[in-house]
Amino acid sequence: MVELQDNYRSIHWNPELLASRDTGFASADFSEQAEHQAYHQLQTENLSAKLYERSRIKALAEEREAVQKKTFTKWLNLHVARFDFYVQDLYLELRDGKVLLKLLESLTGDRLPRPTRGRMRIHCLENVDKSLCYLTEQCVHLENLGAHDIVDGNARLTLGLIWTIILRFQIQSVLEDVQEQPEDECRSVTLTTLAEFVAPSQSDSRQAKDALLLWCQMKTAGYANVNVRNFTNSWQDGLAFNAIIHRH
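Structure tokens predicted for Spectrin beta chain:
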């Protein structure tokens, strides 16, 4: 009986002890909750940063595509104007293949097959395919591009096709123009530069950029305070633009 009473005393109600335990539990719960909130806030901030970055990249890509479309449209109209063609929407008006055929005729001077009459999809596919076949015969590499891509108005591939045509045919005229320049106008261009420019190991895009840069150097040679070294800060003062306009 005495032993049972001792055991009962050892387990009797102790409010102070329970209160201290409850405080400890509450403190632990609060700490865990604060840590969870901080983690959640960090995740939210990271997500917001990623969404902003993605939206910014998308906006820049759309802006770049719009600039390319506008530039390529102006370039194309320069070459098809003599056929009484005028393109306003590049993606829409290349679908029937007729403008594309006239563009290649204007650039090359060759006589391409007559376009198929009709406005059905099959007629458009035939006309675009005629242009693509001609490009293939001219050893123009068309990777992952079919007539249906142009007929369907695929923006990326349509821009890619026009850029490929520019690389293939415009660069030849630039090379010929460079080679025909008098020796005194070529004094700012070294033989090493020209040799590197025509090196067959260069990619088409790099070769086209170098050709255009070399052409600009040729045209602006001899003008005071004009030194074209790149396509960025060499044009900021406007003197290079004025020199090219004056030359032509």
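The chain has ten helices and no strands.
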